Input
Amino acid sequence: MNLVRRTPGRLLVVTAVQAECEAVRSGLPAHALHGSSAIDVYAVGVGPAAAAAGTARLLALAEAAGRPYRAVLSAGVAGGIPGRAAIGGTVLGVRAVAPDLGAQSPNGFIPLDELGFGTAVLPADPALLTVLAARLPDAVQGDVLTVSMATGTAGTAAALARRHPSAVAEGMEGFGVATACAMARVPFAELRTISNLIGPRDRSSWRIGDALHALTAAAATLAR
Output
């Protein structure tokens, strides 16, 4: 069943950068990019603020034009949590988590939820997640962390893994996209392909090409 038809109306796919956008579009058949049930793909920028603002703008413009989106998919390349996701693999976010949204204290980090100022955890839409999981049976499911500063040391990677035992990957946009969707009451999901494992920053070990290829392959399942 077509992912868009499962949720009537157009599907919006947002990425951070143009290379990810092109990778997604490359996987979609021509008929999926046109018509009343089209899949629209846009790059909205790097980081949670750009992702939230860009997604909110696209949702508002579509609503004002009388052609609202019925679901949004945050897609792109990510860093995998060692031992939980493999380079070149695909992950589906069960929840988008902002791991540094909160406060420091002498006794450790206090999440925003415990401070009583909102939430740092936004779940994916269960129906969308079910459809995506059926299309991508080999994808690893778990929380995807949204950070403003990519992890670059073994210590930070280990600390994140301990604090978030359900996390499988780290990106920089998911929670921002999820926030825009929550405010607009539009279903949200997140799909990531893994280019590297988080830890000491070593660009020579990154496999961006493999991750983009996996993103194209995953995108091909969206219009089935």
